[in-house]
TrEMBL record:
GO terms, molecular function: ATP binding
Domain ABC transporter: 2-247
Record-stated family: Belongs to the ABC transporter superfamily. Ycf16 family.
Keywords: ATP-binding, Nucleotide-binding
NCBIfam families assigned to the protein according to its UniProt record, in alphabetical order: sufC
Protein name listed in UniProt: Fe-S cluster assembly ATP-binding protein
Amino acid sequence: MLEINNLHAEVDGKPILNGLSLSVNAGEVHAIMGPNGAGKSTLAYVLGGRPGYDVTGGSVTLDGADLLEMEPHERAAAGLFLGFQYPVEIPGVSNVQFLREAANAQRAARGEPALSGADFLRLAKAQAEGLSMSMDMMKRPVNVGFSGGEKKRAEMVQMGILDPKLAILDETDSGLDIDALRIVGDGIERIMRKPDRAVILITHYQRLLDHVRPDQVHILSAGRIVRSGGPELAHALEREGYAALGLEDARS
């Protein structure tokens, strides 16, 4: 599904990704871990098409299509979803309004008919209930006044409504308490654990992987993947830390 080959990228002229390669097949969940400053969020932003993250070499394809040639909205329409570490607030725009516009914009880009108001509300209610969110919360402005856990659950509702092929989730576990972590982890499994879907989980901690079991775990350091393994690799990191692997915090 996703093929990244020798990807190089920089921010403000500073190289961050330095020859990163990764293959993610349909039906798989891949976790990416690594020290601070290793390039994890940069990878997410490059794949999502965030301005200011400049690709200087390599290639990325999604289902054979050149992802790097697409604008961000075209990547979304092609089935890519980017979950942010810090979801933004949008005052004056309700979650319901925002999500209906987003869903129908993607459907239009794919040549599909728009969802009626009634059909959309049924879909939104089902997804919200799966993430323990009320429709009253869904009618509030996007993320305004939400706790960290509520923002992440609202983002998972968004993912469920948009139903992407590939979800890239940047530290979705950040700011979650034990109960919210379970709810969000179960939501990821319910929405994305399908034969034609795939997930890249970017995380610092093994705890999320208790709820979303990865097929592969990769360690990113200095802008490239330096080690890959199964779920046991995340447990080893939890026990021993990056120092045991000879990896340092890139900001130290």
